[in-house]
Each structure stands twice: as structure tokens, then as C-alpha cells.
UniProtKB/TrEMBL annotation:
Family: Belongs to the V-ATPase 116 kDa subunit family.
UniProt-recorded name of the protein: V-type proton ATPase subunit a
Transmembrane segments: 456-480, 501-518, 581-602, 614-634, 670-688, 789-810
Keywords, comma-separated and alphabetical: Coiled coil, Hydrogen ion transport, Ion transport, Membrane, Transmembrane, Transmembrane helix, Transport
Highest taxon, organism lineage: Eukaryota
Protein localization: Membrane
Coiled coil: 102-136
GO biological process, alphabetically ordered: vacuolar acidification
Annotated function: Essential component of the vacuolar proton pump (V-ATPase), a multimeric enzyme that catalyzes the translocation of protons across the membranes. Required for assembly and activity of the V-ATPase.
Membrane topology note: Multi-pass membrane protein
GO cellular component entries: vacuolar proton-transporting V-type ATPase, V0 domain
Pfam family, one: V_ATPase_I
InterPro entries in alphabetical order: V-ATPase_116kDa_su, V-type_ATPase_116kDa_su_euka
């Protein structure tokens, strides 16, 4: 549980150790069970254990109730979906809390769902009919226009077509030009008929002409036609398939509809074409109908009678108006119903969620043999005992139970969950630690130190107080608007950034601090605290190194003297400074990790870890890298020119050689020999004694002991959480020895690699500084040198974009990840096991939060 949800539930915070936990047992009368669990859900201080783990969900006592509330939750999800579609937002703040009967709510939700489903079905039918009428009107208008332009002797034309026995022309026009082309086609076919009647054939004679039908008028088939609309994208395949299926014995005309129309089936806007297909014979009609069905073409009837056409258009227009009015009235009624639901939706949804979670919890309780009581077990923090007992008494009083709930603490050797009572500031830092692993019960928590060390290591790599101010402004925007943003649905990246707003705030503040030390503001130095301590000897030393400078004032009081920036010796100076500073910080943090392992051993009363883990590790690390840190400080203090690389290398290769000019203090060679000897001794000190001593302890503990007295809760928990306890299983010396050997090798090699890993502080700090300098000099200053306002404006825009995109986004993410690695690997592996599990109490607040 990252954050205490019940205000004021926690004592003064102690993040160094997790809260003391206890296993409690509740014997609850069955008549007050519901009210008891409800009160405990409001309190949020008990993590219930599942005492029915061997039963399936359907075999549990309250399976029917869970099914009922699951159905109610489904109805509420349906209401939410409908409100989202209608653009209605539920009231986020429900009105005054009123007692709602669950059974009445179930009936009401059922009635509302039935009414809404019926309204949706009616609206869907009306909308489909309306869309069909709109399409029908389009077809009538197009085809009716062609009949207006049809010549008066159409009967003679039809008779010619019938004599041909073929499909002729449907005069479907968008304008007179379209009709003229159709008329020319008819004339051409008429001439073709005349030539065939005189026995002449031409190259244009149709291949599928049936001469038998031509010569025998009794076998001629009357033409039919089909009208409708087909999607525009399917028009060409539609026409081609019909032509091939009927072997060319059809005549098809297509014309585009000017605007997309709503398809009655899909309900989406689609671009369509009006089509007319002339055919002869029932077989051709059957084929055409199947093809229309396959292509999703909507067919509509049409008559050749001119008077009926006018009546049909008028009737369809009237029905469209009536349908539109009915749809509008239905939508208004539906909107009012959804608004009524939205006014109480949050209250209903909260009630159903809480009730469902209550019965889920009741299903974790075991029913005693008398079936009059429920037995519950769970973990709770020790400080919450009084509040839990008060909640149990209120539940017994509210449910008019004659017997109260029995509350008792159980003695157990089971490992309790880990619970840190955090707030909105510390929870983000604790999440950083928990992402590596949850602390074992009452193990030393690195989250306390992470609050300071994490933003500080980040700031070392991101040292620029101009960039730090930009980060600070971004963090302040999130913090000022946190009440508004916490209740909104944010995107994944925005939500993650908002959750870490206080981490960003600390990173920004530390970046400003280290930026002032580096004396960099977007790579520009400033004389913030005093003038520079150095000046030129003469006018010719503008591009000189420090050899051309003389010290004329006291040393610059804080941070790097601004005169170093821009000089030819800037890079060697800052490289040396940041590299050595990285080693000092790294060795200090690793020593802190080893010291925390001592506090763990003291707390869990494990003397073996003190003598054979803490002491040799501390000696080994400081004999080598602690000594290196000391040499760095001495060199800075004395101004010596000693080569520390040479000192450290020949400390191993030739420890007895004289140091010469590399000697920093008297008897340095003797000190180095002693430290080297201690480092060599500490390795077998870590490796050999501990496995043998563990074996001896195991034999002594089990020799002649069949029974042992019961221990107190605190003692039993401490024995269980002992990191090296092997008393509950068979002792395997080979496994213990190999395990110890792995840990020893890992620490010895890790001491070297981890120290080198802290050099990333120097590398990323240098990279950030150089990138910032390049962007400033090669973009902004270069644009400034042209003395052109347009070029300057473009340069400023480019500088802003690269600063934000590269330095404030990519560099921030890079420094964040490197600081994360330094904490997880270099710092926490010295003492932190992180194999515990979190405390997840039953709480209505967390139930609603997870559902959101």
C-alpha cells in the first residue's frame, strides 16, 4: 500500500523500518458479518487471508450474492457506455448520502435497463427505416427525373426492345446529356435490328443474340428492372459480376450520389451510386438479386407509371418527415433518461462495488461448525488495534447483534507483509525502491535515503541551474494543479509524470544546486557570488590557459570560478574535478550500504553477519577505494602533483617500491602494505568461517531436542525473518558454502565494478555540459552574429526546441535511468534483500481506485 488512504490512520512516520504487524483473528456473528466487513473496509487496516483457498468460487458461501452484484455491475457498465455515446457525463460529486436498499436498487436497475434497451431497439429500427427512406427518395428522384425526359412515343420504343428480346436502355439521368446518350444507344440498337431483319450482319452484332426468340414472337420475354444503391467502391466489381453472370444479357446504368448517405445496415456514412439493371427472364433476375445481396446493394421498388411515381415521391417525403420527428422525440426522451441515471450513477456504482467487495471478502472467511459465526484471519498494523476494535463495536451496535465480534492476536512464525505508511511526497520515492523489490518485514528501507540521494545523483549528471529552473516550473505546474489533475483521466506518460511530480521537484532543486556549483546557466557562467579570482597579466592573454592568468582576488567563494569556462584548460580541469568527485560520492554511498547491513544484523540479532560480513566487507572496500578517496582529498588539500593512477597500480604490482615524488604523506608505503594485507585477509574472512559456524549452530540446535518451548510473537517473527536461518529445514553444507562463495566473489568483483560504475556521474555530467555549450554557441550565438532579426528568430526557435527535446527530455530520462541503476545495483545490493510482499488491506478506497 503506497499511500495511506484513510486520513489520520498513521502514527508519526518511521520509514526506516516497516510498521510492526500482527496476525489477528476475528470471530464474527453471522448476523453482523456484513456490517463488520463494511466498517473494516471503511477503515482499511486489515489484509484478510483466504481461509477457503481449497474451494472453487462456486462452492463458497456467498457465491449467489457475488453473482447478483456482478449482474448489477454489468448493468451499470452498460449505462456508462450509453452515457459516453450520448455525451453525458455522470456527476462526479454525488449528492447527500442516502440509504439505498440493495434489493430496490436491483429492481430499479433492471427496469431502467429494460427501458433503455427497448428505447435503443426502437430508435435503431426507426433510424434504419429513416435511412432506407432517405435512400429510397434518392432513387426515386434520380429515376423520376429520367421519366420526365422520356420521349412521348415510349410505347414504340418498348415494343422495339421486346422484339429484340434483349436488354435495352434505362433512362436514368443526372442531366439531359446523360439521357441523350441513352437515346443514341436505343437508336443504334434499332438500326441493328433492322439490319438483322433484312438478313445483313455486321461486326457489331451481339454474340449472344438468340435468333429463335427473334423469329418467334410468342417466346419473347418481357423486360424487368431492378433499382437501388450500391457502395461506390464496389460499383465496378458489381457491374462486372452482373455482366459475367448473365453473359452480357443485361443493361446497367450507374450514377454517383453527390453526398455520402448513411447506410441502413451499418449506420455509417458511405459514398454510393444509384444503379438500374434491365434484365429478361426469371433466371437472370434471381442471379441479379443474389449478386445485390452479396455486394450489400440496397434494392428499392420503382414503377413505370408516371402518376404513381409522383405519389410515391410525395408519400416517401411525408414519411421521412414523420420518421424524423419520431426519432428526435425518442432521442430527447432517451437523453432525459440517461441524465436521470447520470445524476445518481456514481452513488449507485460505488454502492455496488463496495457490496461486491464485501461479499468477496466474506467468501474468504470460514464458517464454523455451528454455522452461526464466521472466522476471519488477517494482518493488521499494531497501531491500528484500537481503531479496529472500535469499528467492530460499531458494527455490532448497528446490526443489533447480541454478541460482539471477538478480536484476538495470534502467535505465528509466518512472515508478515511489509507496510510503510507514506504520504503523497514519500510514496513516489518508495515506489522507486519497491520497483526493485519490496523490503522484507522490518528490513532497513533504502527509501529513506533515496529521498535525498536519488535527486542528488541525478543532479550531478544534470548540473545546470537554467535547466533545473525549467524542470522546477514543470513540477510546480503539476503540484499546483494536482487536485484538478488527480480526478482526471490522463494518458500513460502524463499520468506517470504526474505521479512522480515530487520526485521531479526534488531533482529540479538539486539540479539548481549543482548547477550553481558548476556555475552553468544554459552553459553560460556568471559571477554570482564574487568577481573571478583571476585576471590577465597583459592584454595578450585572452586565449591563454591559466598560465597566462594571475590571482588578484580571494578564491571564488562557492563553486567553479567562472574564468575556467571558455579557457583551453576548462576540459582537463573539469574532467579531473568531476571524475574524482564521482569516486568520492560512490565510495561514500557504498559505505552507507555496508553500514546499513550492520543495522540489519543488529536488529535481527545475527552476530555472524556482523563479524563475517559487515566487518570484512568494510575493510576490503576501504582498504582499496576508501584509501583512494583519502588520497584524492589529501591531493586537493596539499596541492600535490602526485599521480594517483601510478600510486594505485603499483600498490598491487610493486608494493615495496619507493613512491618518490608520488608520496603524499609520511610512511605512505607502510600504510599501503598494511591496507593491502587487510584486503587480502578479508576475502577468506568473508568466505570460510561463516558456513562452518552455521553448521555448528545447526547441530547444537537440533542435538537432543525433540520439543522446544513456544516463543513470543516478536521473538518468533525475528527468528523467521533471520536472513540466514536454516533451522526449519535440513542443513546442506555444500549449498551453504557455494552460496557464501558466490556472495564473496560477487562482493570482491563488485567493489571494483561498482566503483567504476559511479564514473557515469562524471561522463553524463560532461556530456550534458558539452551538449549545452554546443547548442548555445553553434545555434544561438551563431544566429546572433548575423545581425539579422529573421535569422536570430529562427536560431532562437531552433535553440528552444533542441534544448527542450534533447536536454530537458532525453537527458532528463537518461540521467534518471542512470541514477536508478546506481541505487538498485551499486547501493541496494550491499544490504537490501527485497524479497518481502506488500501489505494490501481491504479498503473501499483502493477498490474504487483500482476499478477506475
Amino acid at each position: 500500500m503506497a499511500e495511506a488512504r484513510a486520513g489520520g490512520c498513521c502514527p508519526p512516520m518511521d520509514l526506516f523500518r516497516s510498521e510492526a504487524m500482527q496476525l489477528v483473528q476475528l470471530i464474527i456473528p453471522i448476523e453482523s458479518a456484513h456490517q463488520t466487513v463494511s466498517n473494516l473496509g471503511d477503515l482499511g487496516l486489515i489484509q484478510f487471508k483466504d481461509l477457503n483457498a481449497d474451494k472453487s468460487p462456486f462452492q463458497r458461501t456467498y457465491a449467489a450474492q457475488i453473482k447478483k452484484f456482478g449482474e448489477m455491475a454489468r448493468k451499470l457498465r452498460f449505462f456508462r457506455e450509453q452515457m459516453v455515446k450520448a455525451g453525458i457525463t455522470p456527476l462526479t460529486k454525488p449528492g447527500a448520502k442516502s440509504d439505498i436498499d440493495v434489493d430496490d436498487l436491483e429492481v430499479k436497475l433492471g427496469e431502467l435497463e429494460a427501458e433503455l434497451v427497448e428505447m435503443n431497439a426502437n430508435n435503431e429500427k426507426l433510424q434504419r427505416s429513416y435511412n432506407e427512406l432517405v435512400e429510397y427518395k434518392l432513387v426515386l428522384n434520380k429515376v423520376w427525373l429520367s421519366f420526365l425526359l422520356w420521349p412521348s412515343d415510349n410505347h414504340s420504343t418498348v415494343s422495339i426492345v421486346e422484339k429484340l428480346g434483349l436488354l435495352i436502355v434505362f433512362r436514368y439521368v443526372m442531366a439531359g446529356e446523360f439521357f441523350s446518350s441513352a437515346l443514341r444507344n436505343a437508336s443504334a440498337l434499332q438500326k441493328e435490328l433492322e439490319s438483322q431483319q433484312t438478313g445483313e450482319e455486321s461486326l457489331d452484332t451481339p454474340l449472344l443474340l438468340d435468333r429463335e426468340i427473334l423469329n418467334d414472337p410468342s417466346k419473347q420475354v418481357k423486360l424487368g428492372f431492378i433499382t437501388g444503391l450500391v457502395p461506390k467502391e464496389k460499383s465496378m466489381p458489381f457491374e462486372r459480376i452482373i455482366f459475367r453472370a448473365t453473359r452480357g444479357n443485361v443493361y446497367i446504368k450507374l450514377a454517383a450520389v453527390e453526398e455520402p448517405v448513411v447506410d441502413p445496415v451499418s449506420g455509417e456514412k458511405v459514398e454510393k451510386n444509384v444503379f438500374v439493371v434491365f434484365y429478361s427472364g426469371e433466371k437472370a433476375k434471381t442471379k441479379i438479386l443474389k449478386i445485390c445481396e452479396a455486394f450489400g446493394a440496397n434494392r428499392y421498388p420503382f414503377t413505370e407509371d408516371f402518376g404513381k411515381q409522383i405519389l410515391m415521391i410525395s408519400e416517401v417525403s411525408g414519411r421521412i418527415s414523420e420518421m424524423k420527428a419520431a426519432i428526435d422525440a425518442g432521442l430527447i426522451h432517451r437523453s432525459h433518461l440517461l441524465q436521470t441515471i447520470g445524476d445518481q450513477f456514481v452513488q449507485w456504482n460505488t454502492l455496488v462495488r463496495n457490496e461486491k467487495s464485501i461479499y468477496h471478502t466474506l467468501n474468504m472467511l470460514s464458517l464454523d461448525v455451528t454455522k452461526k459465526c464466521l472466522v476471519a484471519e488477517g494482518w493488521s498494523p499494531v497501531f491500528g488495534s484500537k481503531q479496529i476494535q472500535d469499528a467492530l463495536q460499531r458494527a455490532a451496535f448497528d446490526s443489533n447483534s447480541q454478541v460482539g465480534t471477538i478480536f484476538q492476536v495470534l502467535h505465528t512464525t509466518e512472515l508478515p507483509p511489509t507496510y510503510f505508511c507514506t504520504n503523497k511526497f514519500t510514496s513516489a520515492f518508495q515506489d522507486i525502491v519497491d520497483a526493485y523489490g519490496v523490503a522484507k518485514y522490518q528490513e532497513a528501507n533504502p527509501g529513506v535515503f533515496t529521498i535525498v540521494t536519488f535527486p542528488f545523483l541525478f543532479a550531478i549528471m544534470f548540473g545546470d541551474w537554467g535547466h533545473g529552473i525549467c524542470l522546477l516550473l514543470a513540477a510546480l505546474i503539476f503540484i499546483i494543479r494536482e487536485k484538478k489533475l488527480s480526478g482526471q483521466k490522463l494518458g500513460d506518460i502524463t499520468e506517470m509524470t504526474f505521479g512522480g511530480r515530487y520526485v521531479i521537484l526534488m531533482m529540479a532543486l538539486f539540479s539548481i544546486y549543482t548547477g550553481v556549483i558548476y556555475n552553468e546557466f544554459f552553459s553560460v557562467p556568471f559571477e554570482l557570488f564574487a568577481p573571478s579570482a583571476y585576471a590577465c597579466r597583459d592584454l595578450s592573454c585572452r586565449d591563454a590557459t591559466t598560465a597566462g592568468l594571475i590571482k588578484v582576488l580571494p578564491t571564488y567563494p562557492f563553486g567553479v570560478d567562472p574564468v575556467w569556462h571558455g579557457s583551453r584548460s576548462e576540459l582537463p580541469f573539469l574532467n579531473s574535478l568531476k571524475m574524482k568527485m564521482s569516486i568520492l560520492i560512490g565510495v561514500a554511498q557504498m559505505n552507507l550500504g555496508i553500514i546499513l547491513s550492520y543495522f540489519n544484523a543488529i536488529y535481527f540479532k545475527n552476530s555472524l553477519n556482523i563479524w563475517f560480513q559487515f566487518i570484512p566487507q568494510l575493510i576490503f572496500l576501504n582498504s582499496l577505494f576508501g584509501y583512494l578517496s583519502l588520497l584524492i582529498i589529501v591531493k586537493w588539500s596539499t596541492g600535490s602533483q602526485a599521480d594517483l593512477y601510478h600510486v594505485m597500480i603499483y600498490m598491487f604490482l610493486s608494493p615495496t617500491d619507493e613512491l618518490g615524488e608520488n608520496q603524499l604523506f609520511p610512511r605512505q608505503k607502510t600504510v599501503q602494505l598494511v591496507l593491502l594485507l587487510l584486503a587480502l585477509v578479508s576475502v577468506p574472512w568473508m568466505l570460510l568461517p561463516k558456513p562452518f559456524l552455521l553448521k555448528m549452530q545447526h547441530k547444537a540446535r537440533h542435538q537432543g531436542e525433540s520439543y522446544t518451548p513456544l516463543q513470543s510473537t516478536e521473538e518468533s517473527l525475528q527468528v523467521e525473518t533471520n536472513h540466514d536461518s536454516h533451522g526449519h529445514e535440513e542443513f546442506e553444507f555444500s549449498e551453504v558454502f557455494v552460496h557464501q562463495m558466490i556472495h564473496t566473489i560477487e562482493f570482491v568483483l563488485g567493489a571494483v565494478s561498482n566503483t567504476a560504475s559511479y564514473l557515469r556521474l562524471w561522463a553524463l555530467s560532461l556530456a550534458h555540459s558539452e551538449l549545452s555549450s554546443v547548442f548555445f554557441e553553434k545555434v544561438l550565438l551563431l544566429a546572433w552574429g548575423y545581425n539579422n532579426i529573421l535569422i536570430l528568430l529562427v536560431g532562437a526557435i531552433v535553440f528552444i526546441f533542441v534544448t527542450v527535446g534533447v536536454l530537458l527530455v532525453m537527458e532528463t530520462l537518461s540521467a534518471f535511468l542512470h541514477a536508478l541503476r546506481l541505487h538498485w545495483v551499486e547501493f541496494q545490493n550491499k544490504f537490501y534483500e527485497g524479497d518481502g510482499y506488500k501489505f494490501y488491506p481491504f479498503s473501499f478506497g483502493s477498490v474504487n481506485y483500482e476499478d477506475e
